[in-house]
Amino acid sequence: MKSDQYKTITALSEDEFVISRSRFITFAIPVTSEAQIDELLDEYRKRYNDSRHVCYAYVLGDKYEHYRANDDGEPSGSAGRPILGQIRSLELTNVLVMVVRYFGGIKLGTGGLVSAYQEGARNALEKANIVTKTIGLNVSFTFDYPATNDVNHVINDFNAGKVSENYGVNCEMTLSVRANDYAGLLERLEKVETLFITEKVDL
């Protein structure tokens, strides 16, 4: 069974250090979309427009399916990939990590850069508040009022949450349940007399 949980961070965290006179400032930020990431990159590039590089990596999606790494002018593979590697090592998603570098006049070499960007990303992420979230799926349905008790039994058995409910001659309800329980919930609901599912997720 696939996991219906993922790990992310809840708020901005930062780190700063100096190696061979080069200053590295790292920001780890929770994100939910590529559009938001683009806005943040524009914002931080303007804020640190006197820096040499603003390198970054991100992972998006509850299945960790969208990701990107960018070296922003550093030697290929020396910045973005090490940052991405730290995000992945902590199994995080919906996270953007940016590392701003002010060049101090001493070249670090590819190995030194890799170590520096790894350290910056790791330090900022370790300072972040990491949480585990559960993927929830919704199902909407109607039923006749006499079936209310049967519906409530199903809700209790699956620990489902009520997103909305409206009781009348024709009752309406939307439930949310963790993804791994979704198929079982649908099966039970379909056995309730007079209940008709109006909207569901195709698995």
Automatic annotation (TrEMBL):
PROSITE patterns: UPF0029. InterPro entries: Impact, Impact_N, UPF0029_Impact_CS. It comes from the Bacteria. Residues 21-125 form the Impact N-terminal domain. Coiled coil: none annotated. This is YigZ family protein. The lineage of its organism: Bacteria, Pseudomonadati, Pseudomonadota, Gammaproteobacteria, Cardiobacteriales.
